[in-house]
Fold this sequence. Notes:
9 helices
Amino acid sequence: xxxxxxxxxxxxxxxxxxxxxxxxxxxxxxxxxxxxxxxxxxxxxxxxxxxxxxxxxxxxxxxxxxxxxxxxxxxxxxxxxxxxxxxxxxxxxxxxxxxxxxxxxxxxxxxxxxxxxxxxxxxxxxxxxxxxxxxxxxxxxxxxxxxxxxxxxxxxxxxxxxxxxxxxxxxxxxxxxxxxxxxxxxxxxxxxxxxxxxxxxxxxxxxxxxxxxxxxxxxxxxxxxxxxxxxxxxxxxxxxxxxxxxxxxxxxxxxxxxxxxxxxxxxxxxxxxxxxxxxxxxxxxxxxxxxxxxxxxxxxxxxxxxxxxxxxxxxx
Length: 316
C-alpha cells in the first residue's frame, strides 16, 4: 500500500510539474502574440506619420511596408527606415518632427519587447520535456523581427552593405552542414546558419564561396564544383552593434565525406560560433531552433535530389 501511495504521489507531482510547464508555455505564446500586435501597431503608426511628411517616395515606401506580407515585412520596414534616416528633421515643423521621433522610438521599444518575448518562448519550447511531450501543440513557432535600430531614436540608421557567398554543403544522405552561433550583443539568442560569409574586396562570388568553405570547414573545392547560385536572400540584421544590409548568394556543393576542420576560423567566428552539426530536412522542419534561411527545410530536398532547374530563387 505504501508503494502504491508513493507512486500515486510521484505521478501527481509529475503531472502538476508538466501542467505548470504547459501553462507557462501557453502564457509565453500569448505574450509573444501580444508583443507582435504591439509592434505591428507601432509600425502602422510610423507609416501614418510618414505619410504626413507629404513626400511621394516616403509615402510609397510606407505603403509597401504596410501591405507587405509577414515574410517580406522586415525588408520593407527597413527600406522605410533607411529613407526616414535621410530626412532633414530641422526642416520639419517642430510638432511633426517630434511626432516622427516618438513614432520611431515606439518602434524601437516594441521591437525589443517582441524579440525578448520570442527569445523566452523559444527557450521554453526547446526544453526536452516540451519537445518529448509535444506541449507546444499546434502553436506556431515565433520568429524574431530584425529591423535596424539607431543608437538613439532620432539618429540616422546606418546600414552597412554586406554581399556574401554561402554554401549549402550536403552529404550523400541529403543532410546539410550548419553552424550555430550568436550575436555577441545578444548571446542568449542562438541560431543556425549555412557555411559562408562576406565577400572580400573585388572577390568573385564563387571564389568567396570556395574560400569560406575552406576557412570554415577545411574543405578544398574548386569554383566549378559549385552549383548555382541557386538562391538569393536579402536581410537586415545587427551583429555586435553594427547593422548590415546583407545580400546573400547561395551555392550548392555535395561532399562524399568531410571531417569538419574549424581551425581556419577568424577571431569573430571563434568567439561567436558555438557548434556545428549535419541536419536532415525532416529535422529542420521539426526543430524549434532558429535557422537561416527560414525556408531551408522546405527547399533542401529539391536541391539535394538534383532537381534544380537553373533558376535563381529569392528566398527568406
